């Protein structure tokens, strides 16, 4: 059949927007990869890294660790030399002109080290725990923040040879300090929330009071501005005269404890690290443009021309390229636009496809005509449709789409949620919990189907076969009565039955002299799964009983009478006449039982929590834990999607078999 001119036009529009849809999805994926600007370098100390320094002349990277080691790496990231101390390294200052590195260590020493060989040239014992150091550009003075406790602290000034110039005493803890731009004054922050400027004699020149404890002070590029970091991750930008330039705080739903702050080489971006592993980047307007959670606490931030280096309490050194950092705002804006287009383009594609097919267009036209004709009733139904879309279909759409993202408690904004492809599904196979749960689930499905296909069928047949109507009514009532009892009550009752000390099973075994068979039924990996399967004995499912009983009473009585005339016995009539006639009810219960077992995890959660170990773990419980405890929402959505597909396949197979039999 040839397309008309109009249909041909719609056909090309369909193809065009289908291509645009695919292109927008692919572009969104690559943009998402580009916005993940934090990359691993080749430097891995295999230790807990703390502080960083860099020699731009020979491109030497220095890493001070919590494990009492200072390691120098050359331009090719190969180890040049290693120095051992007796404590963690707190701060490193490089003087490229003199080829020296100054290292403040918690063993109370400030070491002066040859940058090229690692030889210790001099060491200064400050007799206190060191928190921070700074050095003048000519290397003639060394500034030290040190103290014996939070209420007894000192700012010490030494010559390069280790002679004490001045000892300024304080009753506050000073975690960050620096020389002023002209190196005539000192600026520091303390645990009282104060930013203080003093001269070298200790006379106070100025002070700013903030709301929280201050934990770090960092120079912004080559300017005369500084960033002071507060304990709650908020920050204040000040100038040389302690004028407050601006303030800001990262967007976070969590209570965090800030550890370190830094800037890029241009001073346009402020980087903040926290004890919980969060890394935030703020732009010139103090707006958050990037966030990521690392596996360990962020401990050091270092800026060089080509990028920013990040250290944490792990072996890897991470890096952000300056070019990527400058483009992050544009990429984030493009990502938002692409998210809109990924919804708009498929809708236009679907509409144009309908317009291409003549029959579909006619149906759409008739539907539109009917809607217009009965517009008043449909307008009255609009609120219902909106509620259905909002509360029923929107969550399903979100769950399906977010199954392919990194959505979690750490990445929960549109700017942070990234497309990760099939990573969540690969995680199911690599972690092992899902596969273990599948094994337990298969066992529960097999025995669950056996239970629903045996006892309820037999009981329904026996009640149906009773002669007196009063007896039938009484037994129907008694077998259906448990339906009014909440499932949680039944589960808790079985929890008591399995109790190792006061439980019914162990008590009965003890009374009959079978103490050797007593067990901790729910605490033993060999018996826990079987205890859950056995729960509900004698397995008279009230719903299944009603369904089967309804099937038996719907069987034509003339068939039973004809069977009796032909000499069939009661068992033959049940097996060859009645049971085949209720096959529809049996298949319905198979589907309902299958769906119920795959989705259910409440009994496992209440009785064992998936334990002991993973002996009773099921996929539904894995989904629940990831969504509520672990905060891995994207992974939970992926689990839900797999379970949906699993249920759908099982249901379709059963329905196809039923259709063939019919």
Structure description:
The strands form 7 sheets. A 4-stranded antiparallel β-sheet has the order 1-28-27-26. Strands 2-3-4-5 form a 4-stranded antiparallel β-sheet, with no helix packed on it. It is an alpha+beta fold. Strand 15 and strand 16 form a beta hairpin. Helix 5 packs across helix 17 (633-661), helix 6 (433-465) crosses helix 11 and helix 16 packs antiparallel against helix 17. The mean pLDDT is 87. It is elongated and about 120 Å long. Among the domains are: 55-263, Methylamine Dehydrogenase, Chain H (7 Propeller), CATH 2.130.10; 427-661, MetI-like fold (Orthogonal Bundle).
Separate helix tally:
17
The first-to-last residue Cα distance is: 37 Å
Q: Please identify the oligomeric state.
A: single chain
Outline, from the CA principal axes? Answer: elongated
CATH homologous superfamily heading of the domain at 427-661? MetI-like
CATH class of the domain at 427-661: Mainly Alpha
Number of strand elements: 28
Strand content: 25-35%
Mean pLDDT: 87
Low-confidence stretches: none
**Widest β-sheet, arrangement of strands:** 1-28-27-26
User: What would CATH call the architecture of the domain at 427-661?
Assistant: Orthogonal Bundle
What gyration radius follows from the Cα positions, in whole Å?
A: 36 Å
Provide the structure class. alpha+beta
Largest sheet: 4 strands, antiparallel
Helix percentage: 40-55%
> Per CATH, what is the topology of the domain at 427-661?
MetI-like fold
């Amino acid at each position: 059949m040839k397309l008309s001119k109009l249909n041909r036009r719609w056909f090309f529009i369909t193809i065009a927007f289908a291509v645009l849809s695919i292109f927008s999805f692919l572009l969104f994926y690559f943009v998402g990869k580009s916005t993940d600007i934090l990359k691993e370098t080749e430097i891995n100390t295999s230790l807990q890294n703390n502080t960083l320094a860099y020699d731009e002349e020979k491109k030497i990277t220095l890493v001070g660790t919590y494990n009492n080691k200072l390691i120098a790496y050359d331009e090719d990231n190969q180890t040049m030399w290693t120095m051992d101390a007796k404590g963690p390294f707190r701060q490193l200052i490089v003087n490229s002109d003199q080829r020296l590195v100054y290292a403040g260590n918690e063993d109370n020493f400030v070491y002066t080290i040859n940058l090229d060989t690692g030889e210790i040239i001099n060491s200064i014992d400050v007799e206190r725990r060191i928190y921070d150091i700074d050095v003048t550009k000519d290397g003639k003075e060394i500034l030290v923040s040190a103290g014996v406790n939070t209420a007894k602290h000192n700012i010490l000034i030494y010559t390069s040879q280790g002679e004490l110039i001045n000892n300024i005493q304080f009753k506050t803890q000073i975690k960050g300090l620096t020389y002023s731009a002209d190196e005539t004054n000192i600026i520091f922050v303390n645990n009282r929330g104060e930013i203080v400027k003093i001269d070298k004699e200790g006379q106070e020149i100025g002070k700013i009071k903030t709301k929280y404890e201050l934990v770090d002070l960092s120079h912004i590029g080559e300017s005369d501005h500084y960033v002071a970091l507060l304990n709650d991750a908020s920050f204040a930008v000040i100038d040389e005269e302690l004028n407050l330039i601006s303030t800001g705080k990262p967007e976070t739903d969590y209570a965090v404890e800030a550890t370190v702050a830094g800037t890029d080489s241009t001073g346009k971006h402020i980087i903040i690290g926290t004890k919980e592993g969060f890394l935030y980047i703020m732009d010139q307007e103090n707006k958050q443009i990037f966030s990521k959670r690392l596996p360990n606490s962020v401990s050091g931030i270092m800026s060089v021309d080509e990028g920013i280096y990040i250290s944490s309490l792990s072996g890897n050194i991470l890096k952000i390229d300056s070019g990527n950092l400058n483009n992050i705002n544009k990429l984030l804006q493009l990502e938002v636009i692409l998210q809109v287009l990924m919804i708009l383009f498929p809708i236009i594609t679907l509409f144009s496809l309908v317009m291409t097919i003549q029959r579909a267009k006619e149906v759409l036209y008739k539907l539109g005509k009917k809607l217009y004709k009965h517009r008043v009733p449909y307008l009255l139904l609009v609120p219902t449709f909106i509620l259905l879309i909002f509360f029923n279909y929107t969550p399903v759409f979100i769950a399906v789409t977010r199954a392919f993202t990194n959505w979690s408690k750490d990445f929960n904004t549109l700017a942070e949620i990234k497309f990760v492809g099939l990573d969540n599904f690969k995680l199911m196979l690599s972690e092992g919990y899902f596969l273990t749960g599948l094994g337990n689930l298969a066992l529960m499905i097999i025995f669950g189907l056996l239970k629903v296909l045996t006892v309820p069928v037999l009981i329904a047949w026996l009640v149906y076969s009773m002669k007196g109507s009063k007896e039938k009514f009484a037994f129907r009532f008694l077998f259906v009565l448990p339906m009014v009892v909440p499932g949680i009550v039944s589960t808790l009752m079985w929890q008591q039955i399995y109790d190792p000390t006061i439980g019914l099973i162990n008590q009965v075994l003890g009374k009959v002299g079978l103490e050797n068979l007593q067990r901790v039924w729910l605490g033993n990996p060999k018996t826990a799964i079987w205890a859950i399967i056995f729960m509900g004995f004698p397995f008279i499912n009230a719903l299944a009983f009603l369904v089967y009983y309804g099937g038996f009473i719907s069987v034509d009585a003339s068939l039973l009478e004809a069977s009796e005339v032909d000499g069939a016995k009661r068992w033959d009539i049940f097996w060859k006449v009645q049971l085949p006639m209720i096959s529809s009810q049996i298949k319905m219960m198979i589907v309902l039982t299958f769906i119920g077992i795959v989705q259910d995890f409440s009994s496992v959660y209440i009785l064992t929590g998936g334990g002991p170990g993973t002996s009773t773990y099921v996929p539904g419980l894995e989904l629940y834990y990831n969504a509520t405890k672990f905060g891995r929402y994207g992974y939970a959505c992926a689990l839900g999607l797999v379970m949906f597909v699993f249920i759908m396949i099982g249901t379709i197979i059963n329905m196809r078999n039923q259709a063939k039999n019919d």
